[in-house]
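Sample 3 of the quickstart, ligand zinc ion:
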Amino acid sequence: MKDTPHPTSRPTDPVDIDMIARRLPKVLLHEHLDGGLRVSTLLDLLQQRGLQAPAADEDSLAAWFDARAHAGSLVEYLRGFALTIAAMATPAALQRVAFEAAEDARLDGCVLAEFRIAPLLFEPHGVSGEAAVEAMLAGLARSPLPTGLIVCGMRQHDAAEITRSAELALRYQGRGVVGFDLAGPEHGFPATPHAALLARLTERGLPLTLHAGEADGAERVLEAGRLGARRIGHGVRLAEVIGTPKGAAMLDEVRSMGLHLEVCPTSNVHTGAATSIATHPIRALWDAGVSLSFHTDNRLISCLSHSDEAAALVREAGFSWEDLKRMGQAAADASFLPGADRAAARATIDAWSAAA
Ligand SMILES: [Zn+2]
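Result:
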């Protein structure tokens, strides 16, 4: 006898979850352009530049990234970036990658996106920081999706290089660059030595989002907030203080500073910052009332889309569509894009219903 599907059982159907996840209006605040290329584009760019690809066709190259992502090693995970940086190191390639990232996000149901990258990484390959930023802004501008670019300074670089990154961000502030970030290895490279630089950026009205509380502890999240960050990349290790004697005061401070966490669950599993989506600290942080949203970090390196991330949270971490909608609303409010773009994204999300 054939079962008649009951209407209320439909949202648990895996096909429906994927379909609703694609329809969900999403706000992308945390994606690295050098970690999010299309596999086909990477292969094409490597061939154009005469660079050795680790695999000869798209399927094999995707499998190569998948193996690195699931190796449970940050070193393996990061190997892909050497490849993408080399492949992207021409103005034409940078423009193409930025345009395709915006279009991929738009076609995946994104209503507002901020992308980030460290432009100075292309200088050893002969592309100046200015040329890199201009090429990526030109690429983003070709997409109808409202977008902005966050300039990253790399923590492992010396202070002069980080200052140069920040000055580059200021030069293009108001022309597509919407914020500044400190990325790269967190452990051993704290943000506090850059306090004066970060203060100068916030005085000039350039918002900060800092990677913190991913590879290093919860106190790094508070440190970033005290240094002027409005958002935190990851911040998931903040969950470790929940229920500890000093945890309540730390969480109170995070909430009173109005910090918004850009959580990237799948990336955390791949780098070892979390063991699974089902046990990911996003649940504990959400239940503790911390403002947060979900993001991809690196679509190519982690082999996923923003919709995949949404579907995984519903399927494996027990979140409802209403929870994800509220995360999107918080993300739109926390975006560094102009007010009109934020308001338009917010209105689209407000009007959305999973049942429609
Ligand atoms: Zn990141």
